[in-house]
């Protein structure tokens, strides 16, 4: 019988792609959304692992409302830190590998070159602080079987995200002003799901070192550059996208100015880092366009 995987946050954008990837690998996967499993409840988590006996747990559950976390940090902490701590304790008890998805927000965002996996953290937001606490709980509890995979600028077909928003706005706006002073790596959830599954398979075989990995696309751009590429793929004039600064969009939580992550640790896992963001976006685009048209009621696909 093949090993069982448990995926938390399974109804989310990344969770759904992880499940699809596992199905493609003929892996037995248990999907747990937030209704089915409160990851911060020790009794429920222990019962779930006792019943399903997973070899690998992939924690895609997270509080991702970055601005709301500024005024609701305790609630965000429960999901982003207490939840991973509870999962890690249960994984230790049952001998399971834990893959914890984290974020670029654990860094200050003021670097000038890609952050390596061992760079000092320095979150500037409540969201970043809560995610960093979750990372530390996993690594402290599972020094040999805990894996933190930081990602950023995620987009996919199964939820609201920047790409789908820009597709929608292109159809209703003559011009768009988009921030050009925040730099990062747009990352397709399907690409990240592939790396998570491959990392989990290697980890359960004891073939790769535990610790921190960076799961973002290669290359880098700004939100402005990202939007111009989206317009190009739509067949729209990229000149309709105009650059602006973060000062034009003041929000409760500060955004990292520099979110580019380095990928050196993938070599230790015998895997290539995720491909360049442009190649991924081009492949993902038809599904994203179809999903956005379905959600807007446009049936002429």
From TrEMBL:
* InterPro entries reported for this sequence: dTDP_dehydrorham_reduct (IPR005913), NAD(P)-bd_dom_sf (IPR036291), RmlD-like-bd (IPR029903)
A molecular-function term among this protein's GO annotations: dTDP-4-dehydrorhamnose reductase activity
Q: Which UniProt keywords apply?
A: NADP, Oxidoreductase
The record's Pfam families line, in alphabetical order, gives:
RmlD_sub_bind
Please list the residue ranges annotated as the RmlD-like substrate binding domain: 6-285
The pathway where this protein functions is: Carbohydrate biosynthesis; dTDP-L-rhamnose biosynthesis
Q: What does the record give as EC number?
A: 1.1.1.133
Gene3D superfamilies from the UniProt entry: NAD(P)-binding Rossmann-like Domain, UDP-galactose 4-epimerase, domain 1
- Report the protein's function: Catalyzes the reduction of dTDP-6-deoxy-L-lyxo-4-hexulose to yield dTDP-L-rhamnose.
The family classification in the record reads: Belongs to the dTDP-4-dehydrorhamnose reductase family.
Could you tell me which PANTHER family the record lists for this protein? DTDP-4-DEHYDRORHAMNOSE REDUCTASE, METHIONINE ADENOSYLTRANSFERASE 2 SUBUNIT BETA
Q: Which named protein is this?
A: dTDP-4-dehydrorhamnose reductase
The organism encoding this protein is Streptomyces sp. 900116325
């Amino acid at each position: 019988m093949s090993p069982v995987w448990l995926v938390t946050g399974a109804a989310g954008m990344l969770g759904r792609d992880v499940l699809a990837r596992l199905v493609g690998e003929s892996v037995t996967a248990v999907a747990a959304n937030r209704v089915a499993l409160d990851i911060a409840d020790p009794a429920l988590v222990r019962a779930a692992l006792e019943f399903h006996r997973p070899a690998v747990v992939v924690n895609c559950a997270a509080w991702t409302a970055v601005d709301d976390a500024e005024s609701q940090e305790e609630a965000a902490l429960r999901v982003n830190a207490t939840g991973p701590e509870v999962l890690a304790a249960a994984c230790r008890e049952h001998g399971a590998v834990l893959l914890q998805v984290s974020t670029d927000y654990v860094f200050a965002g003021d670097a000038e070159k890609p952050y390596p996996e061992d760079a000092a953290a320095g979150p500037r937001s409540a969201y970043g602080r809560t995610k960093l606490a979750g990372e530390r709980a996993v690594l402290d509890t599972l020094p040999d079987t805990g894996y933190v995979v930081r990602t950023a600028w995620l987009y996919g077909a199964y939820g609201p995200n920047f790409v789908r928003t820009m597709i929608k706005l292109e159809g209703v706006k003559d011009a768009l002003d988009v921030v050009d002073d925040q730099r990062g790596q747009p990352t397709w959830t399907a690409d990240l799901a592939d790396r998570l599954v491959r990392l989990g398979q290697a980890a359960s075989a004891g073939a790769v070192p535990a610790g921190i990995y960076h799961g973002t696309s290669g290359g880098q751009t700004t939100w402005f550059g990202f939007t111009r590429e989206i317009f190009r793929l739509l067949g729209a004039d990229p000149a309709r996208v105009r650059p602006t600064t973060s000062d034009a969009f003041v929000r409760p939580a500060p955004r990292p100015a520099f979110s580019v992550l380095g990928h050196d640790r993938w070599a230790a896992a015998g895997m290539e880092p995720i491909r360049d963001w442009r190649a991924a976006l081009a492949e993902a685009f038809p599904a994203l366009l179809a999903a956005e048209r379905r959600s807007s009621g446009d049936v002429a696909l």
